[in-house]
Design a protein that fits this description.
alpha+beta, Nuclear Transport Factor 2, Chain: A, globular
Length: 127
C-alpha cells in the first residue's frame, strides 16, 4: 500500500490530535488546529463557529462525552491546498459518519469545516 499524500497525512495527524481530550481542552492547541473561518455542523444538525467551539470545549462546564473513537479514516487531496477526510466515530454507543475539510495556510494544515451525521444501522461493508 502506498504512502498517503503529504497533505492527507497532515490532515489525518491533525484530526487524530483533535480527538485527544488534552487538545480539546486547550485554547492554545485548538487555535493552532482550527482555521479562523472554521465552522461545523454537529450530529444534531446545529451549526457552530470557531469561537463558540473553542469556548465550549475549553470551558470547565463543557459536557464530557467520553472517549471518542475513530475508524475507517480515509483522505483524498482535492487540490494542492485542500484535503477531505471521511471517517466514522463512536462515543458511548452513538455512531456518526464524519467529513472534514483541511486547508493549507501559512500556519500549516488547519481544519476548515467538519460535519457529523448520525447512523444507527450497520454499513453494507459491516456484514
Amino acid at each position: 500500500m502506498s504512502e498517503p499524500a503529504p497533505g492527507v497525512a497532515a490532515a489525518v495527524e491533525g484530526e487524530l490530535r483533535l480527538l485527544d481530550p488534552a487538545v480539546r481542552s486547550s485554547i492554545h492547541l485548538l487555535v493552532r488546529l482550527l482555521h479562523p473561518d472554521y465552522h461545523m455542523v454537529d450530529s444534531t444538525g446545529r451549526c457552530w463557529d470557531r469561537a463558540t467551539v473553542i469556548t465550549l470545549l475549553t470551558s470547565g462546564e463543557a459536557p464530557r462525552a467520553g472517549q471518542l473513537t475513530a475508524s475507517r479514516m480515509r483522505g483524498v487531496q482535492l487540490a494542492e491546498d485542500l484535503v477531505q477526510l471521511t471517517f466514522d466515530s463512536e462515543v458511548k454507543g452513538k455512531r456518526a459518519h464524519r467529513s472534514s475539510l483541511w486547508r493549507l495556510t501559512d500556519a500549516g494544515w488547519l481544519l476548515y469545516y467538519h460535519q457529523a451525521t448520525p447512523f444507527f444501522t450497520a454499513r453494507p461493508d459491516e456484514g
